[in-house]
Amino acid sequence: MAVFSFTLALMAMACPLKAFDMAQSTRCVAIPNQMKVCKDVGYSEMRLPNFLGHSNLEGEVVPRSEDWKPLLQTGCHPQAQAFLCSLIAPVCLDTFIQPCRSLCMAVKDSCAPVLACQGHPWPEALDCDRFPAEEDMCLSPHAKFSHFVKGLPKPACQNCPSVEDAPAMKTVLDAFCHHDFAVTAKIHRHRTLTGEPEFEIQGRVEFIRQGPLLPYDTQHLLHRWLLINLKCANTLVRPGRSQLYVLTGSVQPDGTLALTRLFPWHKKDTNIAVATRKWKHHRC
């Protein structure tokens, strides 16, 4: 399974690597189509060996690159792909272009908590001290991305929220009152050919209580919550199935979104249907 291979990849990267020798013989190769993690990264040729010491394209570089797909799917940082691909598939130019230490720190600050949520440390091979501080000769972070990230809620790493089947109408209305937002969303779980469970939010997210959520961002935000809190997500829907949920929660002072109470909405759950209708005229 991909989760298992990702764990092995992190264990391998936790071992200290020999310093990359800028004087060693290198060659340029086309980035292969199957290397999807670095697809559309902005250039078509990469240098081997790469900055992680991998020289075998098919045996090391491509499979190791795909191990980072689960992290990148969480959207933990808008430049996470650029950072990782600058190491896995460095651009083939007349000079070596490494990521700047400042870019490493920016990505680490956002993505290390996601790895920690899934039980993994930040790899020693990505120790930010190994990268240059001179930003004129390395890949630097973009200020516009930093501003954009700070302006949107982020999914929290959290314990599994309470899941309540067949709730009473008052229970549902109280949940609407006591939390910042309430939405309905259909969660679908399917499996890839490798057996890796994947999640998506099917259809539109319907707002019952919008609160601080942004309509254009909420579906993506909930999807990222599922990917970050993967163990919890696995308990919500069986493989190959979809389930409609009423989700309530709050945006924390640090800007993270936490889900608090979840109600599976089955056809027989008339109390949920009545509660959503009464909410417009309900006084908390």
From TrEMBL:
GO terms for cellular component: extracellular space. SMART domains: FRI (SM00063). Disulfide bonds join 104-128. Its main location: secreted. The keyword Secreted applies. Pfam families: Fz. It comes from the Eukaryota. GO terms for biological process: canonical Wnt signaling pathway; cell differentiation; non-canonical Wnt signaling pathway. GO terms for molecular function: Wnt-protein binding. Residues 1-19 form the signal peptide. InterPro entries: Frizzled/SFRP (IPR015526), Frizzled_dom (IPR020067), Frizzled_dom_sf (IPR036790), Netrin_domain (IPR001134), TIMP-like_OB-fold (IPR008993). Keywords: Developmental protein, Differentiation, Disulfide bond, Secreted, Signal, Wnt signaling pathway. Residues 23-141 form the FZ domain. It is found in: Secreted. Residues 157-284 form the NTR domain. Belongs to the secreted frizzled-related protein (sFRP) family. PANTHER family: FRIZZLED, SECRETED FRIZZLED-RELATED PROTEIN 2. This is Sizzled. It comes from Parambassis ranga. The gene is szl.
